[in-house]
Amino acid sequence: MKKDLGAKTLVYPTPVLVISTYDKEGNSNAMTAAWGGICCSSPPCVAISLRKATYTYDSLMDRKAFTINIPSEKYIKEADYFGMVSGKKEDKFAKTGLTPIKSEFVDAPFIDQFPINIECKIIQINELGLHTQFIGEVMNVKIDDIVHEGDVNQPIIEQIRPLLFAPDSRNYYGVGEQVAKAFSIGKEIK
């Protein structure tokens, strides 16, 4: 039998995304967000949702651009820290030693040490309630050489080692082993 939990945000897993922006003075800032993901294939778009109370919110409204940086397990402390303090009060890059790099495609920095960086221009803003959703068209994706094979420009998840977040327990997890090939295993039912 199933138990009703009421209206909750329990979609598993949620990604650990580090959103980078420039503030009004041109300073690099980053914050961790779990409310985000792919929202369109063509044009390629991603959506992130943030509270108006965040320092990053004003930067998004002002600059109309952001990067999504995918941290590896190696940077779990830094990713957690980015979500714990406000860029209004601390220079998060100076504190963590991570490097913001100016994007060639959008008015936002990306984090050099993270294996995947997604450069986005904001094309739509939706007020949802406590959160505001920012839809960004993907202008470019950068991946480290070590997370793809040869000439294939396809990231390898086992080498990226992205972080996952469980909103109910507030814990981080790593990615487990591959269990099946998508668009293949279901053919066994046909």
UniProtKB/TrEMBL annotation:
<dbReference type="GO" id="GO:0010181">
    <property type="term" value="F:FMN binding"/>
</dbReference>
<keyword id="KW-0285">Flavoprotein</keyword>
<dbReference type="GO" id="GO:0016646">
    <property type="term" value="F:oxidoreductase activity, acting on the CH-NH group of donors, NAD or NADP as acceptor"/>
</dbReference>
<protein>
    <submittedName>
        <fullName>Flavoredoxin Flr</fullName>
    </submittedName>
</protein>
<dbReference type="InterPro" id="IPR012349">
    <property type="entry name" value="Split_barrel_FMN-bd"/>
</dbReference>
<feature type="domain" description="Flavin reductase like">
    <location>
        <begin position="9"/>
        <end position="154"/>
    </location>
</feature>
<dbReference type="InterPro" id="IPR002563">
    <property type="entry name" value="Flavin_Rdtase-like_dom"/>
</dbReference>
<comment type="similarity">
    <text>Belongs to the flavoredoxin family.</text>
</comment>
<dbReference type="Pfam" id="PF01613">
    <property type="entry name" value="Flavin_Reduct"/>
</dbReference>
<dbReference type="InterPro" id="IPR052174">
    <property type="entry name" value="Flavoredoxin"/>
</dbReference>
